[in-house]
Amino acid sequence: MKACEELEALRSGKLGLLSYLDSVCSLIEKEDPVIHALVPGTYGRKRIISDAGRLLHDFPKQESRPALFGLPLGVKDIISVKGFPTRCGSKLPQHLFEGAEASCVTRLKQAGALVMGKTVTTEFAGFEPGPTRNPYNPGHTPGGSSSGSAAGVSRGFFQLALGTQTAASVIRPAAYCGVVGFKPSFGRIALDGILPFSPSADHVGFFCKDTSLLPIVSTVLIHDWEDRDNLPDLEKVKAGIPEGPYLSQATENTINFLNRAAAIMEEKGISIVRFEALSNIEKINDFHMRMISGEMARVHGKWYSKYRDLYSPKTVEVIEKGLRVDNEELQKLVSGRESVRDQIDREMNEHEIRFWLTPSATDHAPEGLESTGSPIMSLPWTYAGMPAISIPCGFDKAGLPHGLQIVGKFGEDELLVQFAQELSDMITG
Asked: Which of 35, 144, 194, 212 has its CA 20 to 30 A from that of 370?
């Protein structure tokens, strides 16, 4: 059953909300002690059933039920939720992160979503891993920083989970955990109520089981979302594969999945062009990492000197690197985002492509929990603020999933969601 069909069954009453949640809670209680997707102390069966009872009381008539009625939701633990602590995967005093509920959470709750708990994040959404394990092989990373959100959706703990992306923190864990991840264009989902990593690169995104939820959730989260009927047919536009130094960052293992997906699309009549692009990728990667380090150092300036010993070595390394980025350089790095976006637009226009096809990550999820994997397949798109979606595209001989990253033009999120749905159906069908 597709996620949208399950949601409609909840709204119509064909799927009883309380019995459904009871089974989900049983699954969490059985499997989360192994997966560690949820922050301890934030999940509670009694609270969830009580919240569901209030929802049923408020919306007894099926026709009046909101769009996400009864949908289980996980929320990354740098995002404030009323009634829940925010710990940011850190050892710093919890009171430092207290604040009003994020508007993205409020929107989802008002639409009927039920918060199952806070999901594990790497420390401050950075590079120090949390305890979450890959649901396909607990000896491998789930990716990060939105580790618990991706793993929880993958295991069925919730149908929807919020995450954030500053480098690759939605797209990469979505690929590693075999789920759909959507990072909209920069600024389309508000960042209030979320502890910043890098205000110039932070994006709110979300994970779901399949692409059928993408337009439904986007309509709730993005205030100016347009469900338009005049979008171009997929068969009438071109896709591009960026050959050259960018693509060479990925392994042959994952490029095989890209090529296989592209071949299926071409058989279905999709026009795909391959050309060298992003020849300055090393420079873009460096600009992005220096910018986010510089901004993180400034975000943590008021805490770092006082609580330095409570930060992990990996976070200290990022902050120390950021302290060496002076204000003049940081401003140039922030301004450089539009230059890179313009560069990518020129390459797209020159070859008349509407979206890119790339691997979501350099390879499958690495073994071990010491790292969350390389973010480099996402860096140019994140730096430029362009919308990106990762869809599952198969499993390799190691039994681990791979993702196909689809990247659209800045602001063309609605078109990208339509394409992603159609492409996903082609690949999985």
From this structure: 194
